[in-house]
Amino acid sequence: MWTPTEEEKYGVVICSFRGPVPQGLVLELGETVQILEKCEGWYRGVSIKKPNVKGIFPANYIHLKKAVVSNRGQYETVVPLEDSVITEVTATLQEWAALWKQLYVKHKIDLFYKLRHVMNELIDLRRQLLSGHLTQDQVREVKRHLTVRLDWGNEHLGLDLVPRKDFEVVDSDQISVSDLYKMHLSSRHSVQQSTSQVDTIRPRHGEACRLPVPHHFFLSLKSFTYNTIGEDADVFFFLYDVREGKQISERFLVRLNKNGGPKNPEKIDRMCALFTDLSSKDMKKDLYIVAHVIRIGRMLLNDTRKGPSHLCYRRPYGCAVLSVMDVIPSISELKEEKDFVLKVYTCNNENEWYQIHENIIRKSSTKYTAPSSNYGLIISLQLLRGEMEQIRREYPMIFNRGVAVTRKIGFPDVIMPGDIRNDLYLTLEKGDFERGGKSVQKNIEVTMYVLYADGEILKECISLGSGEPSRSVYHSFVLYHSNSPRWGEVIKLPIPIDRFRGSHLRFEFRHCSTKDKGEKKLFGFAFTPLMRDDGTTLSDDIHELYVYKCDENSTFNNHALYLGLPCCKEDYNGCPNIPSSLIFQRSTKESFSVSTQLSSTKLTQNVDLLALLKWKAYPDRVMDILGRLRHVSGEEIVKFLQDILDTLFVILDDNTEKYGLLVFQSLVFIINLLRDSKYFHFRPVMDTYIQKHFAGALAYKELIRCLKWYMDRSAELVRQDHIQEAMRALEYLFKFIVQSRILYSRATCGMEEEQFRASIQELFQSIRFVLSLDSRSSETLIFTQAALLNSFPAIFDELLQMFTVQEVAEFVRGTLGSMPSTVHIGQSMDVVKLQSIARTVDSRLFSFSESRRILLPVVLHHIHLHLRQQKELLICSGILSSIFSIIKTSSMEAGVLEEVEMMVESLLDVLLQTLLTIMSKSQSQEAVRGQRCPQCTAEITGEYVSCLLSLLRQMSDTHFQHLLDNFQSKDELKEFLLKSFCVFRNLMKMNVFPRDWMVMRLLTSNIIVTTVQYLSPALHKNFTETDFDFKVWNSYFSLSVLFINQPSLQLESVTPAKRKKILDKYGDMRVMMAYELFSMWQNLGEHKIHFIPGMIGPFLGVTLVPQPEVRNIMIPIFHDMMDWEQRKNGSFKQVEAELIDKLDSLVSEGKGDENYRELFSLLLLEKIEQETWRETGVSFVTSVTRLMERLLDYRDCMKGDETENKKIGCTVNLMNFYKSEINKEEMYIRYIHKLCDMHLQAENYTEAAFTLLLYCELLQWEERPLREFLHYPSQTEWQRKEGLCRKIIHYFNKGKSWEFGIPLCRELAIQYESLYDYQSLSWIRKMEATYYDNIMEQQRLEPEFFRVGFYGRKFPFFLRNKEYVCRGHDYERLEAFQQRMLSEFPQAIAMQHPNHPDDSILQCDAQYLQIYAVTPIPDNIEVLQMDRVPDRIKSFYRVNNIRKFRYDRPFHKGPKDKENEFKSLWIERTTLTLTHSLPGISRWFEVERRELVEVSPLENAIQVVENKNQELRTLISQYQHKQMHGNINLLSMCLNGVIDAAVNGGIARYQEAFFDRDYITTHPGDAEKITQLKELMHEQVHILGVGLAVHEKFVHPEMRPLHKKLVDQFQMMRSSLYHELPALDKLSPACSGTSTPRSSMLVSHSPMSPESIKLVHRHSPLNMLGTVRHSSSSLSSHTSSEAGNLVILTDSSVGETAEDMYHMQASPSTSSLSSTHSAPSQMINSAPPSARGSPSLPDKYRHNRELMMLLPTHRDRPSSAMYPAAIMENGQHPNFQRALFQQVTGPCKPCSDPNLSVAEKAVPAAPSSWSLDSGTREALPFLSAHVGSILAPPVPPRSLPHGHYSLHFDAFHHHLNDAPPALPARTLRKSPLHPIPASPTSPQSGLDGSNSTLSGSASSGVSSLSESNFGHSSEPPPRTDTMDSVPSQTWNTDEDLETPYLPVRYSLSEPDVLETLKSQPCRSHSAPTGVIPQDAMDPPALPPKPYHSRHPNMENEEGIILEEDEKHRALHRKISQPISGAKEEQARVAWEHGISEQ
User: CB of 1767 within 8 A of CB of 1932?
Assistant: First the structure.
């Protein structure tokens, strides 16, 4: 049964509880819990951390604590019953714990460790406090340490400052706002000082200056390691002032035994002293700690003979010094002692012993000897500060060690009353003695006694030093053989005061013989009395005493015998007639000097003071004695203060008339002396005297009379020093007057009361008279008035003893009122007057409400005047603070309401005005005139703000009612309201209080909201209807908005505990203000329209505050606004426009969230439902909601560490929304610029240019003026557009997109031309020309394109469930792109298949990314089909302005033929259409449409063969146009690849698949396509024939065997074709009627003329397009099961139609002829070369034969990856090299070997290589001369019978030995030496593939490549690697050549080039282009001028045909007639004959 707990209410968790039971509350160790109920060993309650979660937990896990429960029941609160500091420490440590760990995470390691240290200290101090074993002082000290550490930590962690008083947190409700402000200031100060906590409220005005803090040195002797003495020693320590050359402290004596230990065993570890009372001045002096070592033993240390061993002498030994200035820096901050070692130096000459320490300090090294080792005295020092009492409290351990307190010689700076001293310091200076007939000088010892008047020796009155007991006799140390010894030894004589008078000192002089007996012989003495006859003591001076002769037999028993003699010269002069005594004769030649210094509080050396105290002895001299009192030193006066005062008042009583004024003056002098800081502590002595000892009952009359007399004279006198002194002494004079009157009244039972009152009244009239005088003319009078005003407040307390509060208040009011009220009496008097008022307010008098009622008006009057004038603001604020403080503390009293009323009337308005002025000044950083203290304006602002808030807080309903009723007119009320609202606004805007003053800020907000609630009815009542005032209402609304948006009120950002605390105390003030604001809005009625659209932005800001209630209150206001505007204007366009504008800026500032968006939509749609304008309203709300979605996405991207891509995507999305959906041009333009900046940051210059172009297109070439906007100045539209164009052109240039920049250059040129601005025109034309040059000369990389699908609801709104195509960065491959995307979306999961995802993925709460590469389909096919256009130009059009992309996926349809897979291999082609072309304003655009088509196996075959034909044409043509003797490897490889593949099964596979009778009968519709395929095959044979002819011309002699083999294989291939296709030997009926030019050419066996080739292209069904960028082109292929050791070098497929062709995408072996789509993408050919080699070739040719796979593709279509068209200067093909790299070094695709059987080649199926998991490839930067296994396209194994070469190749035979016309050689722009391989899945992976349609096996090779195979260039050859996009140069002649393009002639005499066989760009993934030759080509839209890069080895200009080629120019003619069959046969025979000869 659960029962509510009674006692067990609060506890601490002592063991963590995981809550494993139902309803269990999870608790961590150290958490605090509030217990509600209990049941059988279990409690039910809540954790203080999570007060909303209730649960149960075991009782034995909880340690109960006592607590106070308030409001018992459901909502009870529990406060632990413990010291509030402990509670605070606990809460703070819990708060810090979380933040502390964060410091480590954020790498703030330094603070992390510091905070850990402080937290440990706090825990330790808290433990001490909880122990309960501390004294009150210790508790106070621990609390001080705790609070200092708490404040330090809070400040460093950025937490709130805690205001405290006496270490306890103050309750802001209990004190005035002014006091709270001061506590904050002092807490801040204590944090900054981090020293002792300063008193929380600053001292009030005029409080006495602070006393100087005394310093103390604690010295402890650790050891004396200088143990060579072997005798006892005395060590004396003292402080020595070098500059003054004197000892300033007593000596501290340590007695050591011969072993160096203390003589007294009890002193072990207790040899320590405290040198006290050093002032700050002393600490700045050049002080030294000096140690004198005096040994006690033999006369001479090393001579055993000198003197008997039983006699001990004090002998000087050594000295050590330590500079205090040197050690202070190291010990001033330490809390513990620090050790120092002092070297002990010995004296070289004993006569100079008295100054050995000076010699050591001055480093006079000849006069002392340094010790042989570093040993010496080891001492420790510690510097302490504070009064002795404080030191005793703070360092009890020091005093427990029996420390010797060693005082200063003389008085300290501050003489404390009760500090009784009577010390005479005597210094033995020197002596001069006779030799006395001896041959050597004497060893003199002085013995001293203190004797009393009766001759008794005073016991223990001689102290050699502190630390040892006093003694009765003193023996000086002995200087060896010195008749003029100088000792310089200081001895203290602490003689009791009662024995001082009559005592004297006797000095006896003895010679210490060193003979055997060693006795000490007395030979003289000297003496001196301590007191003179006149009662004064021995003066502080050197006294030279007479020496009297005597001997051992002389008796001193009768001291009277010598006391009658003169002791010194002064004494002798005083009594010259003394007869010379017979007993003691003076030795005139001998003398003895001592000096004395008296430090006594009882004895005086001053004659005048003694005369005053004994005035009755000199009655005639009284006037003189009183006058001389001024000359007595202050120390003497305070010592005898009571005696002097008694004497003065006795004299006054004796003769008032005669001595009255003099006694008054003396009294004033003494009172003012006590104002000195040195004697300030004697004021209590004076007070005690007045209270207890003063007996002058009649004195008051005379004192009043004198005082009045002085005041009345002040108007006349010029010199007023004595009057001013009297004014300063006013306080104590009044104390004497009042006490005197009390005594008199007691004695006479109250007689003469009326006279006394009357005299006081008169005195006050005199005071008023003095104050009312005009002091402007007299400076002295000013000082008199100032002195009077300063002292005046001090007399109130005295008057209160005699008069009632009201009477005193009246006196004071009259006095203060008598001051001139103008502020023109001079600034200094202003200050004094205000300080006097301030002291009045701080006095006890003001704390009585009766007196306040009288005094407040006059005080407020003066303050009001000063505030009006803006003078002395700081003092005024202090006075006001004090008043508010008093009123707050007495707020329960009845009269307070009246006082507040008075203050409201007098101050409220002027306070507001003052604050406005100060705030405006502080904003302009001007100093305030009244600011005499160097406080900053901020402090004044803070002071006045706190005063205003104090006043407003004290005001009740009645006060506000009266205030508002008292306004005479509405204008006054309006002005008041405006001022109030303005001040409140400034308060929130200016951050008057620092961010961490949370208590102050919350209290301020609370007062503001309360005040606004009082003022708003007045606003509504007076300014709504006819008197509507926009300004006041606007001010009110602005204030409300600012208030709700205050950072300090945003509770969402604070910790739950703090939030609960704030809500408990104040509630959510934002909600209070929102209700107020809403109700006021509703009160506006029809005037609401005035605030549309002005208030929309501010209100929107309020609704964005993350407080649901505020949102619910405020959002409906927008409906109201729409409604009112709709009524007035018939639409709400303004609301719409403003809302959208402001929404943008507010959301980007970080406001708003998803909840807000939903709430906004919900609330407004609900309201709009009932309206007539519902439709427009709904559409508006919907569009705002959608805008919000985008803005929130945008903001989240911007503020997070998001990648550029996301940010750009967001911005584009938002920008488009502004343009297309809500048509906000200005916002649109803003975002254009934001987007542009982002692109620039990411270095996307082309995109940046396109972005700016959007703005440029909005502008016209007009002179319309445009305003200043963003960073644009105000200018005309023409200027802005021109500037934009220039910038855009610049960006296009940086992005190398010159083709886009050229139209803009032209546009600018037209403008400049029309304005005749030829300078600019010239500049822009040159720019345009440069761009054409750049196009032809500069390298450009072609980018990759990737399709990305973003699936799942976790993606930002603008990406969610959409697909995009992205333009990759330079050199970026699929893997890199994929990694980039995954790092941008770290939560995303990569999908491993290309299929479209289903709904489960689209709707899931996750992120899925689907990425694959796509192939661009260019729009501008015309340019790509033109023969004469250089490849560099075409390259641009292949990858720019692309809107369609393609992706291919191979699959088998129907049963798969294991023997021939091509029969069933289909291609699924996906075409993606984007919303915009790439490149554009973004690197990626959304897919707008996707189409799917399937390509049949036959169509695929047609495309593959046609691609290969095109590739061959291109390459052969290049060789015909260039002199490439010596390096025809590429041609060899290409021919070898195609012929070998054909022989060993390439084309045969197609023949098997599609020419089969079964196929033809089952596919009757394919007849035309079959014919087309046949034609293409025959065309290939023709091309190969031309190729072999060219090859024979250039082949190297060593390569002839290869050439022969090629010819043999070619004949096999030809015969194989004719064997398979006999119908082609004669005209086929199928073709006869509709034969294409291609077929007729083939039928007639005519040589291929250029025209015929062109015709073939034009009419072929595939004429539009060649291969795709990566058409996989071998005719041999294996599916995954057959892919043995293949290395597949390409992954793409050919298309079916022109468009499809471009939609092809890199996919694993999408080619119908080389399909290994399931094979692993990175298989390495592992068979040895011999296993793959052709048996007919020697090994040395084997490699190059393998290399032949890498020949270029056809000409007019973009070349495949491995067969780019460009040829290097020396004939070496760049991609050939690159391919070698990749074959030799990179992981590659499987390669087929024709010599292996199908079974041997089987490999396991692998994941499809178009999925995302692709591998990375690497490439070596160079290639060795001999390469290993070379990669080649796969070849299906099939042997054909020989002898099938019946195709007519004869036509190509003749004249092949003649050099064909060469083409200009070119350097390539891409370096072949650094390939960066593509990923197997990326579009570039085709680079690794052979696109050769008819490739042979790559198993045998030609001779190995040497380094010379590569083109040499002075600069590194530009790259043609996989990386990218820049196409290699085309081979065609330049357009600027004069000669026409050379036609190819096939005749017996003219072996000319195939004209149209022209190379294509070497782009790895270039899109296929069809070839449509036309006689007259239209220029492209931007026809750049062809410009070819120069090769360093060429001497001729580029584009000019070399000399060798000149002879061929005559051969240009077209061959329109086919050559006869006979010629053809001749050619064939001749050609074969030539071969056989070789």
Answer: no
pTM (predicted TM-score)? 0.60
Question: Which among 127, 34, 30 has a CA at the least distance from the CA of 86?
Answer: 127
Rounded Cα–Cα distance for residues 2038 and 2034 (Å): 6
pLDDT at 1621: 59
The DSSP secondary-structure symbol of 1183 reads H
CB 126 within 8 A of CB 146: yes
Nearest Cα to 937, choosing from 949, 948, 924, 947?
924
CA–CA dist 1147, 1974 (Å, integer) = 59
**Could you count the other beta carbons within 10 Å of the beta carbon of residue 80?**
18
Cis link prior to 1093 (omega < 30° from 0)? yes
CA pair distance 384, 390, nearest whole angstrom: 10
How much is the CA Rg of the chain, to the nearest whole Å? 57
Angstrom distance (rounded) from CA 693 to CA 75: 64
Token duo for residue 539: 């003066």
| DSSP-assigned letter for residue 1884 | G
Q: 1179: buried, middle or exposed (CB in 10 Å: 19+, 13-18, 0-12)?
A: exposed
CB 897 within 8 A of CB 185: no
- Tokens representing 1373 are 């491959």
Instruction: Decide: helix, strand or coil at residue 1929.
Output: coil
- Which residues have CB under 8 Å from 102's CB, separation 6+? none
Among 1311, 1381, 1321, residue whose Cα is nearest residue 1346: 1381
Instruction: Output the average pLDDT for the chain.
Output: 74
CB 1991 within 8 A of CB 1767: no
> Residue 769: how many CA atoms within 13 Å on its side-chain side?
15
Q: Whose CA is closest to 1869, among 1427, 1337, 1364?
A: 1337
What does the alpha-carbon distance between residue 1890 and residue 1748 come to, in Å, rounded to a whole number?
10
DSSP 752: T
CB atoms within 10 A of CB 1550: 30
User: Helices 2021-2037 and 1567-1594: crossing angle, nearest 10°?
Assistant: 50
User: Does residue 521 contact residue 508 with C-beta atoms inside 8 Å?
Assistant: no
**Who contacts 1443 (Cβ-Cβ below 8 Å, separation ≥6)?**
1419, 1473, 1474, 1476, 1477, 1478
Going by the DSSP 8-state scheme, the letter that residue 232 receives in this structure is: E
The tens digit of pLDDT for each residue in 745-770 reads 888 887 888 888 888 888 888 888 88
Which of 1292, 1300, 1192 shows the shortest CA–CA distance to 1248?
Answer: 1292
Coil, strand, or helix at residue 594? Answer: strand
Give the integer Cα–Cα distance in Å for 1773 and 1516. Answer: 12
Q: How far apart are CA 1424 and CA 1437, in angstroms?
A: 7
Query: Is 135 in contact with 94 (CB distance < 8 Å)?
Result: no
Three-state SS sequence of 525-590:
EEEEECECCCCCECCCCEEEEEEEECCCCCCCCCCHHHHCCCCEHHHHHHCCCCCCCCCCCEEEEE
Angle at 1832 between CA 1830 and CA 1836, to 5 degrees: 135
Q: What pLDDT score was predicted for residue 729?
A: 81
| Top-confidence residue, 598 or 250 | 250
* Range ranked top by mean pLDDT from 101-115, 1721-1735, 1756-1770: 101-115
Using N-to-C axis directions, what is the helix angle for 779-791 and 753-772, rounded to 10°? Answer: 140
Spatial distance between the Cα atoms of 1303 and 1306, rounded to a whole number of angstroms:
5
Cβ count within 10 A of residue 1633: 6
Pairing state of beta strands 246-247 and 232-241?
Answer: antiparallel
Strands 520-529 and 542-549: antiparallel
Q: What is the pLDDT of residue 418?
A: 62
